[in-house]
Amino acid sequence: MSEPRREVQALKNSNDVVLARQKVRQWATELRFSLVDQTKLVTAASELARNALDHGKGGRMVMEQVAYGAKFGLKLIFEDNGPGIPDIEMALKDGFTTGSGMGLGLGGSKRLVNEFSIESTPGKGTKVTVVRWK
Amino acid sequence: MNDLAEIISRNESQIRDEWMRDMSNSVQRSDLISKTEIDEQCRTLLAAIVNGVRVSGTAETSGSGWNTARDYLQEISASRARQGFSPSEVATFVLSLKRPLFGAIRRDLAKNQDLLFETVWATTELLDSLALLTTDAFIAAREELISRQQQELLELSTPVVKLWDGILALPIIGTLDSARTQVVMENLLQTVVATNSKYAIIDITGVPTVDTLVAQHLLKTITAARLMGAECIISGVRPQIAQTIVHLGINLEDVITKAKLSDAFALALQRSGRTVVRQAGATTAGAPLLGSPLRKQEG
Amino acid sequence: MDRIPVLRMGSLLLITIQVDMHDKLALQLQDDVTQRISDWGSTGVLIDISSLEIVDSFIGRMLANIAAMSRVLGAETVVVGMQPAVAITLVELGMSLPGVRTALSVEAGMELLYGASFGLQSGSENERAEA
Q: Which residues form the domain of B172?
């Protein structure tokens, strides 16, 4: 099989978060996602990219086109080497936050995508993987 | 297994002729596809198979040498599915290649019984796997068609009606699941923007049951509309629904509900600053045909 | 762009957000609005987001903050023109933007703030029905 399409975006400053949004939007458009699905995915990407930057002290986003049988989709992986999340279950509940504000990043993002998985080791970093199928 | 590739190349036109002949006995469907087209497909497929065997062998069809053959078979299957062939007709297209191939193998390898058997076995496995591929592709094409039709049905079954300037009505008929809610929400919100309507009446007379999930879906729609600056009124709440809502403890505090669509309409009119006024001298039958019976005749 | 322009129309502040904002730009806008209300004694703030295709929790918080801060300073805020896809996504995200008044268009927003007397009329004046 040919190599799956893949692209990496660094997340070092708030401008990178904007770039990440734009890249996801571009891929989603090329893959012909509906407008609502695109909006949901780009918004989730914005949330998770910002998390990686603000809480994770910077990291990167990896974009991959994925396929399963006849359907295909877009996978986004957000990695950082920050302090990690000690209690993942708590973090996924709506309203959880360590900073100021409404803190709806993780729990809300989970609802915007079809698949969501998160690995985090306190002191080592966090990795969030999401997939939106067409 | 380069022997197989050589055998096919050496005997290509004979194999193709026999293949076409065998096919006409079972499955040619000249009503759906022309002879020239089939001939073309046979040629292309044989060439792809030769290439596949040469590059990636016969053991598995997932190697890169088989890409062309796989893609081509998917294309043929999808197009035949659309044309109206049955799945077995499509698979037989591939399977009917067995006989001519075995014939060629037997002729060329008659001197070596063991190699003959191995080659025949490898060939039958190969063709079986290619035939199964066409079946998978066929089903995938059918499923895509069905899901597209389902989508169209969903969209058609949730019309948004303009009752008045700035007042929309959305009668929902049937069950409200999460897929339908998405369609309903998108449809309603887009119409709200297009018609600049501040009020949307969601009538649920036609919704058989309202449980916690349905209520959540309705609440999502109402919240989304509110976020945009429009107000929703729920109408058509039957007595049983009202009881269910209370029993389930569903919180509809922020939501305006009315039993009848007409009540909801009257409320929307009132809220948008309008009143309905009966013209002087008119009754519910409209303007009278004659003047007052008590007026004196002139002259 | 280093700042989102804040326009003044009498006692109204008009803000049209047309770019994909990065966080600093959003925070700058918050500062600018509160500063302007204070400078000019504005009583109304109208934020037009009809060009915004993405509103995530950060932007949502920004809008809620602007509304809350303005109210403390004696001004009312209305956010107008939210796109349907954005509304659907915000609901899924769990954000209902409490304390933020919204309207469908700039005209509707003006009417909400100042009433029909503002002089902008949307819809037809003649609504006589055929009975």
A: 161-277
> Which residues are CB-neighbours of B246 under 8 A, at least 6 positions away?
none
In this prediction, residue B140 carries a pLDDT of 86
Which of C57, C84, C88 is facing A104, going by the closest CB pair? C57
- Is C14 inside any structural domain? yes
- Structure tokens given for B69: 């053959």
Domain's final residue, options B123, B151, B179: B151
Contacts of C103 in chain B (CB under 8 A): 229
Closest listed residue to residue B195, CA positions, set B172, B225, B171, B234: B225
Closest Cα of chain A to C61: distance in Å? 7
pLDDT per residue as tens digits for the range B140-194: 888 888 888 887 777 677 789 999 999 999 998 888 878 888 888 889 999 999 9
- Asked if residue C111 is part of any domain, the answer here is yes
Question: Is residue B282 assigned to a domain?
Answer: no
Domain ranges, residue C70: 6-130
Q: Which of residues 121-180 of B touch C (CB under 8 A)?
A: 165-166
Residues 6+ apart with CB under 8 A from C13: C6, C7, C33, C36, C37, C40, C42, C44, C45, C46, C75
B9 and B147 part of one domain: yes
Question: Are residues B171 and B132 located together in one domain of the fold?
Answer: no
Our count of domains for chain B comes to 2
Contact A20, A12 (CB under 8 A): no
Between chain A and chain B, the number of residue pairs with CB atoms below 8 A apart is 10
Same domain, residue pair B238 and B262 = yes
Are B140 and B219 part of one and the same domain? no
Segments in chain C below pLDDT 70: 1, 116-131
pTM of the model: 0.71
Angle between helices B98-108 and B12-26 (to 10 degrees): 150
User: Would you call A36 and B182 a contact, using CB atoms and an 8 Å cutoff?
Assistant: yes
> Which residues of A are less than 8 Å from C60 in CB distance?
102
Q: Looking at mean pLDDT, say which of A54-63, B17-26, B50-59 comes out highest.
A: A54-63
Of A39, A4, A10, the C-alpha closest to A25 is A39
Burial (CB < 10 A; 0-12, 13-18, 19+), residue C56, is: buried
Amino acid letter, residue A75: K
ipTM at complex level? 0.85
